[in-house]
Design brief:
Blueprint: E1 7-8, H1 19-33, H2 40-58, E2 65-68, H3 71-81, E3 87-92, H4 101-104, E4 111-116, H5 126-133, E5 138-144, H6 156-166, E6 169-173, H7 185-188, E7 192-196, E8 208-212, H8 260-275, H9 278-298, E9 303-305, E10 318-322, H10 325-334, E11 337-338, E12 340-342, E13 345-348, H11 356-367
Parallel strand pairs: 1-11, 3-4, 3-5, 5-6, 6-7
Antiparallel strand pairs: 2-8, 7-8, 9-10, 10-13, 12-13
Helix pairs in contact: 1-8, 2-8, 5-6, 9-11, 10-11
The structure holds pyridoxal-5'-phosphate (PLP).
Length: 368
């Protein structure tokens, strides 16, 4: 992966394409200049391989995956498609807005969004969330697996069990974790998980997916309906034999013509990640880099680690709160370290291509 002469610690914003994905993209663009060389199986296979890769990343089956342009579209499918009775949807305070706005918009259906305040340590209060789930009026819970700013990792097994006990739907924004941490959506009882692939999955903007648990395929009412959702549209030669029978699997939630070339690039990026050991190996690598960040922060009194120190509660997002954020960001920039400020903290987001030397360079600059 070529990130030039800078240290790129910003996968939580945009993941760089592996070289082989770039080559695949050039191949696809050349084909797009001569569409006569592209066959329908070529396009359809790229999409199917993408579904298979995404499914493998999260322990799902490919027929439970619908390709999406991003995370938020999948979360909208959850918000508007699940049969929510009037009541409360719970989320954490401080969530990325894609976990907030689609659910805030349900007021006219008698469904309100309630944000559980931060715990005293400034992290999501999972204990309070679980307590409120059992209250009786909670119809769904939507949380990020990994918080985009603090890096806190939700205990999905714990929250999922509470949701099941309460009969509440369990919706997860997976974008800050999928790809670099193993997850088994079946075992966790997740109903819907949405994720863009542009960050940790090193794939193009405009690629992502939504997992919809198989048992819910007939229950979720697609808010957007298009020609691509229907079984009758599979024969492109006869599209006007209208029959609104939805496809039997999660492809029923794919509404329009897909960005086949982008998903073709995503397949290559996901294969590169798989060849690098997949989520298990990447998690171990990133956790080891994180150990260094945690140890460094523990020795300083001018920088506070917002991210939990416990490996089980952190993934690839590390939030460090310096006394002077602007000065720290300027030093990092001058040292050629690419990272961003989020919610008052410096966010370091190392991936599999980063080394301990990268992390040391960032910490040296951060420390001043
Ligand atoms: C937790 C979380 N959800 C969603 C998104 C982005 O949503 P989308 O893929 O719909 O643009 C981000 C990006 O920063 C994020 O951190």
């Amino acid at each position: 992966m070529d990130t030039g002469d800078v240290v790129y610690l910003n996968a939580a914003s945009t993941g760089p394409h592996p070289e082989r994905a770039v080559a695949k993209g050039a191949e696809w663009l050349a084909l797009r200049a001569q569409p006569q060389r592209i066959t329908i199986p070529h396009m359809v296979n790229a999409a199917q391989h993408a579904r298979e890769h995404f499914a493998a990343m999260i322990g799902a089956d490919a027929d439970e995956i619908a390709l999406m342009p991003n995370t938020t579209y999948g979360l909208n499918l959850a918000a508007r498609g699940l049969p929510l009775r009037p009541g409360t949807i719970l989320t954490f305070d401080g969530e990325f807005p894609s976990c907030v706005y689609p659910f805030m918009a349900l007021g006219s259906r008698g469904v309100s969004l309630e944000r559980v305040p931060f715990a005293e340590d400034g992290l999501p209060d999972e204990t309070e969330l679980v307590r409120r789930i059992g209250r009786g009026d909670v119809v769904a819970v939507v949380v990020s697996w990994v918080q985009y700013a603090s890096g806190f990792v939700t205990d999905l097994a714990r929250v999922g069990a509470a949701c099941r006990a309460a009969g509440a739907f369990f919706i997860v924004d997976g974008i800050q974790g999928v790809g670099v941490r193993p997850i088994d959506v079946h075992a966790l009882g997740i109903d819907i998980l949405a994720s863009g692939a542009q960050k940790w999955m090193l794939s193009p903007w405009g690629t992502g997916f939504v997992y919809v648990r198989r048992d819910l395929h007939d229950t979720v009412r697609a808010p957007d309906v298009g020609w691509a959702c229907m079984t009758a549209s599979q024969d492109y030669a006869w599209l006007t034999h209208y029959d609104d029978t939805f496809l039997p699997d999660a492809r029923r939630f794919e509404v329009v013509t897909l960005a086949y070339h982008d998903f073709g690039v995503a397949v290559e990026a996901l294969q590169a990640m798989r060849d690098a050991g997949g989520p298990t190996a990447l998690e171990a690598h990133i956790a080891a880099l994180g150990d260094r960040i945690v140890a460094w922060a523990a020795e300083r009194d001018d920088v506070r680690l917002w991210t939990p120190a416990d490996r089980a509660r952190r993934a690839g997002v590390f939030a460090l709160v310096p006394d002077d954020l602007d000065a720290a960001m300027n030093r990092l920039k001058a040292a050629g370290v690419v990272c961003v400020p989020r919610e008052g903290a410096v966010r370091l987001a190392p991936h599999g291509y980063n080394t301990l030397e990268d992390v040391e360079r960032a910490l040296a600059a951060l420390g001043g």
